[in-house]
Design a protein that fits this description.
The complex is a heterodimer of chains A (247) and B (314). Helices cover 30% and strands 39% of the residues of chain A. In chain B, the strands form three sheets. A two-stranded antiparallel ribbon of chain B has the order 1-2. A two-stranded antiparallel sheet of chain B has the order 3-4. Chain B starts with a strand and ends in a 7-residue tail after the last strand. In chain B, helix 3 crosses helix 9. Chain B contains ten helices and six strands; from the N terminus they run ββαααααββαααααββ. In chain B, 53% of the residues are buried. The chains are: A alpha+beta (247), B mainly alpha (314). The interface between A and B is large, with 64 and 63 residues. Strand 5 of chain A pairs antiparallel with strand 5 of chain B.
Chain lengths: 247, 314
């Protein structure tokens, strides 16, 4: 019921927008695809984001993956070997994060960057309240390094290029290890150090086909999946034993 | 050609996986072990998370063990009574180890315990084997007509209660011995993702005193049952068994194993044991260095309680 009500409200708002005279949207954009399919042959994807602005301004694009609880562990030397001795838990850590901008992010005011989490330095990663405040920065830096090493974060922003005064586009490379889940693409139009328009659209990364079926099987009928795996192994071994004995 | 592994959630090159399986299969065919102690560290090196690598490694070990146990079965080189006791201990041990793995993972100590187990077990077994080979080599050099060493020496294990007759092995020892050994190997196989053949074989020869002819076949039987138990429990409770990864490596392994067996047949038993000892020590040293050397990054991350894989090999 509430969904139907919501869609009705949205419809009314949309119609109001369409019929509002001479009030052009300041910002429209779309993605080349809203569904990244992780198939068996998946080795990464290249997503195109394109759109148009009304009037002057800089465009900043943020793509965020699903939030996860992430534990950061630190090793120290105990009796000659390196052991995980300390840990800190962060919540609201995006699984994946990319930002692209038509102007270097350093030229955008820190207030805007903080509010919209533009750049890895401005990500709001919340350490659990029991964390040692003096060490949060170090653990946070460790988290960012780990994410960057796996190409899940990029410390440098990508480039949004303008084609003429209004049309813009940017590419986001999704690496092969891109985490499945629901993503959001957000585009900001910044003019005179003010965000004058912001739009978001969802994007999904999901396993499709045989791989997805296997994953679902392994989680839904875990015991049967385990028995099947054993069966495959036993059969393969037995088959090979018989074949190579004859050969 | 890469393939996206549905449980490991990383894409890996099929040819690399096949080649890895083939290489390990060659060695396991040559030495008559499952090769789990090579597979799990290699999978981790390729970027598979340790949890998935250990669980999938156990599944992979079943196939080569199955094909070689058949050959031993035909030659009647399996002691069913001894094997049954080893398996009984192994089932209890591997079930306990699955719970242990969960506790260690939550504490962030799993990687450490896995590495330490590898270094200690492989280090001890490799050193003992190499020592044995060198001794045998010296003996051959010094006197061709030297007295062969007595097969049966009595020490503390023979004082254990509950003695039983094992006709196939021509032994009269305590049933606690195979039960205890099975239990220990079961725990290790769950934690390390190995069948435990590399450890079981020397223990059966030197500690239990079984004749070499029945050792390999009997240990393989225990390896199959314990590895199957680990596979089932890991798949059931942690969903960390990747059937696509397992099948790919298995195919390579089964293709490589017969060539390894052929190569092994051309070598003398001592040469084989010496090579095996060097291989085991090599893996132990490699992993030992990893424990002692300062890591590139002191910080690592777990996502939703699972250590994050997908790190490219450095």
């Amino acid at each position: 019921m509430s969904i139907r009500l919501l869609s009705l409200v949205l419809l009314v708002l949309a119609l109001a927008g369409v019929y509002a005279p001479a009030r052009a949207q300041p910002l429209v954009f779309d993605l080349s695809t809203h569904l990244i399919e992780i198939t068996t042959g998946f080795s990464g994807a290249d997503m195109l984001l394109f759109g148009a602005t009304e009037g002057e301004g800089d465009v900043v694009v943020v793509l965020r993956g699903p939030d996860q609880e992430t534990t950061v562990r630190r090793k120290s030397r105990v009796g000659g070997i390196w052991i995980n001795t300390d840990e800190m838990v962060f919540t609201g850590v995006p699984a994946f994060y990319r930002v692209a901008s038509s102007r270097p992010l350093t030229e955008i005011s820190p207030a805007i960057r903080a509010r919209h989490q533009l750049g890895t330095d401005y990500l709001r990663l919340a350490a659990l309240p029991n964390a040692d405040a003096s060490e949060v920065a170090e653990f946070r830096a460790g988290l960012l390094r780990n994410k960057e090493r796996r190409s899940l974060y990029a410390s440098r922003e990508g480039e949004v290029s303008f084609l003429g005064p209004r049309l813009f586009r940017t590419h986001v490379l999704l690496p092969a290890n891109v985490p499945p889940g629901s993503y959001t693409a957000e585009v900001l139009l910044i003019r005179n150090n003010q965000v004058v328009a912001a739009q978001t659209t969802p994007m999904f990364v999901s396993k499709i086909g045989v791989g997805a079926d296997v994953y679902e099987f392994a989680h839904r009928d875990a015991a049967i999946y385990g028995i099947l795996t054993i069966f495959v192994a036993v059969l393969a071994g037995w088959g090979a034993g018989v074949i190579f004995r004859k050969a | 050609m890469t393939i996206y592994l549905p449980i490991a959630e990383v894409p890996l090159d099929v040819l690399i996986l096949l080649a890895m399986g083939g290489g390990v299969g060659f060695l396991s065919g040559m030495f008559g072990v499952g090769g789990g102690f090579l597979i799990t560290p290699m999978l981790i090196f390729l970027g598979v998370s340790p949890a998935v690598a250990a669980a999938t490694g156990a599944a992979i070990v079943i196939a080569p063990s199955m094909s070689s146990v058949l050959a031993h079965w035909r030659r009647r080189n399996v002691d069913l009574k001894m094997g049954g006791l080893l398996i009984a201990g192994g089932l209890v041990g591997s079930a306990a180890s699955i719970a242990l793995v969960g506790v260690l993972r939550r504490a962030g100590l799993l990687d450490l315990v896995v590495s330490l187990s590898y270094v200690l077990l492989l280090g001890i077994v490799g050193t003992l084997m190499l020592g044995e080979v060198i001794k045998a080599f010296r003996r051959r050099l010094s006197a061709a007509g030297a007295v062969p060493p007595a097969r049966h020496t009595h020490f503390w294990v023979h004082g254990l209660p509950g003695k039983m007759r094992f006709p196939r092995s021509r032994l009269y020892v305590s049933a606690l011995l195979p039960l205890g050994v099975g239990l220990f190997v079961g725990i290790m196989s769950g934690v390390m993702g190995v069948g435990g053949g590399f450890f079981l074989v020397p223990v059966m020869i030197y500690l239990i005193g079984m004749p070499t002819s029945v050792v390999v076949g009997t240990s393989l039987m225990q390896v199959i049952v314990v590895a199957a138990n680990v596979t089932l429990l890991q798949a059931w409770s942690h969903q960390t068994v990747d059937i696509v990864l397992a099948a790919t490596v298995m195919i390579g392994g089964l293709l490589g194993a017969p060539y390894g067996a052929q190569a092994g047949a051309r070598l003398k038993a001592d040469q084989l044991r010496g090579l095996m000892a060097l291989l085991i020590l090599g893996v132990a040293i490699q992993l030992g260095v990893g424990l002692v050397a300062r890591p590139d990054d002191l910080y690592s991350i777990d996502i939703n309680g699972v250590p994050e894989g997908g790190e490219p090999p450095s």
